[in-house]
Known about the structure:
- The chain is an all-alpha fold.
- The chain has helices at about 1-10, 10-20, 25-50, 60-75, 80, 90-100, 115-130, 135-140, 145-155, 170-190, 195-210, 225-240, 245-250, 255-260, 260-285, 290-305, 320-330, 345-365, 380-405, 410-420, 445-455, 460-465, and strands spanning about 370-375, 375-380.
- It has a two-stranded antiparallel sheet with strand order 1-2.
Amino acid sequence: MIISLVIGVAMAIPTAMAISLGESDALQGFLIAYGAIAAFALIAFLISVKDRSTLFRNRDGYLTVTLSWIVATSLGAIPLVASTYYTSYSEAFFEVMSGFTTTGATILTQVENVPQSLLFWRALTNWFGGMGIIVLFVALLPALGVGASKLVDAETVGPTKDKLTPKIKNTALILWSIYLGLSVIQASLLRLGGLSLYDALTITFSTMSTAGFSVKNSSIGTYASPYIDTIVTLFMLISATNFALYHKVITGRIKMVLKDGELRAYLGIWAVITLLIAANLLFSGTFATVGDSLRYSAFHSASIMTTTGFATFDYQLWPSFSQMLLFLLFFVGGSGGSTGGGIKVIRIVALFKMARVQVKRRIHPRGVFQVRVGQTTLHKELLVAIASFFGIYILTGLVGAALISLSGADMMTSLSASFLCLGNIGIGFGQVGPTGSFAHFSQPILWVCSLLMLIGRLELFTVYVLFTKHFWKR
């Protein structure tokens, strides 16, 4: 019931926009959605009155979180399909799942033909999904009580979960406050760059959530502005950084931030890839100047690594070496505890260090070695979990690609579509590249992609555990 009310409150802004802009089709969609939300809330209330069980177990957290994302998407999709700008509920569900999971993939081919209120709602789903729907509930509703920590654990991304304060509610409030503050700063900087309030807000919603929905057909490339590119690049990197580090900066623990191993690796990977692509673009003659080469390489390296999915240029026209480096970033992702998706930098670093330890053990069989990321030593159970996650992640992506290939899509499109949905990246290669979309896929394939986005956003196990027989045993 709570989730339906939150979705209803969030829809108030785009509904008001539809009224003020005279967008009757969009307004019709929002009004129908409000009717569905009211009906759902009433049914949920009646069920909750009958079931007053207070025992909240770990597995209840997994089920609640997964269902919350599904319910939010189901209700959030209604304005889109009811307004007639989406031809089927499958398309609308895919679009809003892409929004809440911060994927940014779309079935739209002409974005600018859609009413502004609907596009604003689409961007708003990005922003709410960035920090997490459940984290928002915990921040606003102290009544969740002891079950709150189980919900946040089931939703929060990354192998490590920083608890900033003893109370999970206070931690959620701090995270959302930082998120809101950074959003205000970015929107203000974009306004200084000459963007309208509408453009500045929608870009901010999609940047801070590392999502990538755009209200323009050519994404950020529409503005052809080095200033806008720079601001968006900066905030994509900021958004995919562990938000716990910002709390440490605020509380004066800057030295701890500078020593953070994941942060160093994250920025190091982005910087190296950016320089390599820039050099390739310059020497291949793709761009005539060092400045342009760095500008476009920095933007797209950040866009894909942080799983945002914005574009300023069709990188499929770039040399193969540059494209391959961008494809490799599909398997990196942002930092743990950030709004970024993907495998996560800390897991990638840990995997490489685990491999190095195995090489050392070949030489020194009796040696005792530890895997450290920065100042943190990763214990054996966590390393096993990281290795398991990586294996299941790759397997899930390959199975998804096989299913998508049933649509007749070529191998690159199938692989790209699967892993961009699973990693919540938004843009890829082939028919789902910077100038493409998911419009050509059939409805069953769109449901497959929607499931991949949900599985990726909740980091595999939160969803997969629901399909085990042990989960349903008393």
